[in-house]
Amino acid sequence: MMTENQPGAIKKPLLILAGPTAVGKTECSLLLAEKLGGEIISADSMQVYKGMDIGTAKALPEERVRVRHHLIDLCDPTEECNVVRYKEEASAAIDDICSRGKIPILTGGTGFYIQAVLKDTDFTENASNRAYREMLEETEQEQPGSLYKMLLEADPKAALEIHPNNIKRVVRALEFFHASGECISDHNAREKERQSPYDYLFIVLDRDREALYRRIDQRVDQMLEEGLYEETLQLRAAGCTRNMVSMQGLGYKEMLAYIDGETSYEETVRLIKRNTRHYAKRQLTWFKRILDTIWLDCAGWENAASLSDHIITLWNNRQNKQE
Predict the structure, then answer these.
(1) Same domain for 210 and 108
(2) From the CB of residue 53, how many other CB atoms can be counted at a distance below 10 Å?
(3) Could you write out the DSSP letters of every residue in 240-257?
(4) Rounded to two decimals, what is the model's pTM?
(5) Residue 36 pLDDT > 90, yes or no?
(6) What residues contact residue 69 under an 8 Å CB cut-off, 6+ apart?
(7) Do 99 and 43 belong to one domain?
(8) Which domain holds residue 225?
(9) Is residue 277 part of a domain?
(10) Are residues 85 and 54 in the same domain?
């Protein structure tokens, strides 16, 4: 019996629309889904959490009526939703969408999650050891910077690619080394060569940096007007604490510091905008490492409608070549 990964097998279609936060993915993805007869799979590591709507810029209820969305509100914010669970859920969603004759459109800015789905990464052999992770986290709390020093010794190449302040990625690299005895940098190099089980088109939206940063500032202002402060209070009242993965999301961690009296409101707003700009830069860096991507500057089109039409042309051309 022929499987999807064997030569000559028919691969499922997958349209990927990625890019930094606030670049304009949501509006474009809705139009693509409507015009192509598709459904959207969120590729956002924070939108999986219930009750975190404003700070994660989730699609509005009326937008979810227009187009069916998947992997939004997947779990409670007091839980941890990691890439292993995300990849399993996203792969199942793709199978479901394709079984109904629809086009799956993977949309978001979490590059690690997108790549895990695209390359069908197998995480089973290197599942996280919770006790070891907790030990690492306690070590970092007691001796800030110590984990990065450990990574420099265990996997110097990975340490050069990971910012010392990105504790989550440092921990994951150390976990991987602990579980497998292999450097995660070597693993990642192999993953780049791994063939995808999908017939995919990978679009990355981009904008001029000043224009992107203006949009980020405007989005933060809008989130504050819509009630980011009140949403954070509700999450805290529901038992969410600052050490939870969900509360590490942009906007929430800064707002919690404000609620605890550690920063002024003006400083909180400044930090959210600054940290979001930094995050956008990291997103762009990640996507630049992925092969077979098509970058589109949104300024080259009059509006989202014309941009979506261009992407559909690219999609149809690719599909025709495969026939």
Answers:
(1) yes
(2) 20
(3) --TTSSGGGSTTHHHHHH
(4) 0.82
(5) yes
(6) 39, 40, 41, 42, 59, 63
(7) yes
(8) 12-121+197-322
(9) yes
(10) yes
